[in-house]
Specification:
By secondary structure, the chain is an alpha/beta fold. 19% of the residues lie in helices and 28% in strands. It has one domain: Metallo-dependent phosphatases (Purple Acid Phosphatase, chain A, domain 2). The longest helix has 11 residues. It is globular and about 40 Å long.
Length: 198
């Protein structure tokens, strides 16, 4: 199963030069945040593929005008083709904007998910906007990662952790890294994951 992850910058290749052939093998699109609602609505309409999303710290417009035809997976687990996907959007709190959280607030969000996680016997993919603390984040307050994400991976060891927020052009950033038993993917702009469904 192929999942197209998108985040942070609208891809001209997918939007301005849209070609449906690019999506022939794509089964699902997941946004990791900070993308225009019109972009998500365009992709879900033109590609005719389900699109799931979490919020980025610049997605305040979604409050009044959410992406049409797309499904928000904030604070829940959705199962698609037997793949359990947990969504936790937002960034670290830095100016009291929408979809910004303190470490304590993120821990509370995760705590509320405990029953759902147990009921689903864990999860396969953690989808977020922010990254891990001290692993693939930056030192400034806005782009810092959540320690509670590290703890979540330590406890449940999902196959994948996919996030945005940390632009690959911010310096020497890697697209894919390993964190214990979890593959960490930075979804900046676009990335196709070939998920082996067993």
């Amino acid at each position: 199963m192929k999942i197209l992850f998108i985040s942070d910058v609208e891809s001209k290749y997918l939007w301005d030069y849209f070609d449906k052939k690019y999506f022939e093998d794509i089964d699902l699109i997941i946004s990791c945040g900070d993308l225009k609602a019109e972009y998500l609505s365009f992709l879900v309409t033109m590609a005719s593929i389900p699109l799931l999303y979490v919020h980025g710290n610049h997605d305040s417009d979604y409050i009044k005008n959410p992406p049409e035809g797309c499904d928000c997976i904030e604070d829940t687990i959705v199962t698609y083709n037997n793949i359990r996907i947990l969504g936790l959007g937002g960034s670290k709190l830095y100016n009291n904007g929408d979809f910004q959280y303190s470490e304590e607030e993120m821990k509370k969000r995760i705590k509320k998910l405990k029953r759902k996680i147990i009921k689903n016997d864990g999860f396969d993919i953690l989808v977020t906007h922010a990254g891990l603390y001290g692993f693939d984040d930056d030192k400034d307050l806005c782009h810092g990662g959540f320690l509670s994400f590290n703890e979540l991976l330590d406890k449940y060891s999902p196959k994948y952790f996919v996030h945005g927020h940390i632009h690959l052009n911010y310096g020497r950033k890697e697209r894919i890294r390993e964190y214990n038993k979890t593959t960490v993917i930075n979804a900046y702009e676009k990335y196709i994951l070939d998920y082996d469904v067993k």
